[in-house]
Amino acid sequence: MHEKERHRIILSAVQDRPVVTVQELVALTDSSEATIRRDIAQLHVQKKLRRVRGGAESIHPPQFVGLAGRPFSVNETINIAQKRAIAQKAVELCEDGDAIIINGGTTTFQMVHPLATKRCQVFTNSFPIAEHLLKNSKNTILLSGGVIYREQNIILSPFENDVTRNFYAKRMFMGAQGLGPLGLMEADPLLIQAEQKLIGQADELVVLADSSKFSARSSLILCPLERISTIITDDGIPDSAAKMLEQADIRLIVAPVSAAQGKAASSG
Questions:
Q1: Domains of the chain by start residue, with CATH
Q2: Could you report the per-residue pLDDT of 44-55, keeping only the tens digit for each?
Q3: Which residues of 69-102 are buried (b: 16+ CB within 10 A; e: fewer)?
C-alpha cells in the first residue's frame, strides 16, 4: 500500500475513535509494525495527529466514536474482481418477489448491479445499496433506522424495538471480517449487535466472502458456522477452508474469477 493511502487510513482511524493502537493500524493497512510506527512519527511531526504510547490519537478528539474496521471507500477497491463475481452468484439465488436482507458492505454492494433486473423486496442498512437500487431498479427498498456511520456508509440502531423486527426475509446476504472454525467474525461489538438482529429475521444466511477472508481473523465471533446456510467465495479458496465448510455441512458456491480474468485478458 502506498504511503499516501496509509496516511489517509491512519488519519481516518484516529478521527473515528479516541486512540488507535499500532496493532489496529497494522491490520487496517496490511503493513508492518515498523512501517506504521514511522508513519505515526511522520504525521506527529506534521501535527496531523498526536503520538501516544502504543499508538496514536487525534489532535481534535471525535465527539462521536465510529466503528472499528477499514472505511468503505478503502475496502471497495480491494479484491474488486472477486467481489463482483461473488455478488453475481449471490443474485442468481434471488427470484422476483423474494424478500431479502442485504447487510452493508463492499462485497454485498456489488449485488446492486445484477439486482437491477430483479423485482425483490430488499431490506438494507446500507445507504449506498439503498440509493443505487432506488435509482436504478424496480426493487422495493426498505431502509433501517438509526445512526449513520459515515466511514462505513452503514446505519445501525441501538434500540431493540426498531423496524428490523417487522421484516421477515427468505435470505440474508452479508460479508465477513473473517471466517474460521469458530464461525463468522466481525470487527466491532456494535456491528455484531445489529447484525445478530438481522440474522434472526431470515431463514437462510448467505455469506459473501472472498478467499482472503479465510485467513483473516478477529477477536469477535458474530455467529457459529452452523448458522450459515451458504458461503459464496472465489476460486482462490484454500483446500483446508473448503474442507472446513464441508464438515460443517455448509453449501459452498465458488465464483470462477481466475478463468474470467484470463478470458478477458486473451480477448483484449
A1: 3-58 (1.10.10.10), 72-255 (3.40.50.1360)
A2: 999 999 899 889
A3: bbbbebbbeebeebbbbbbbbbbebbeeebbbbb
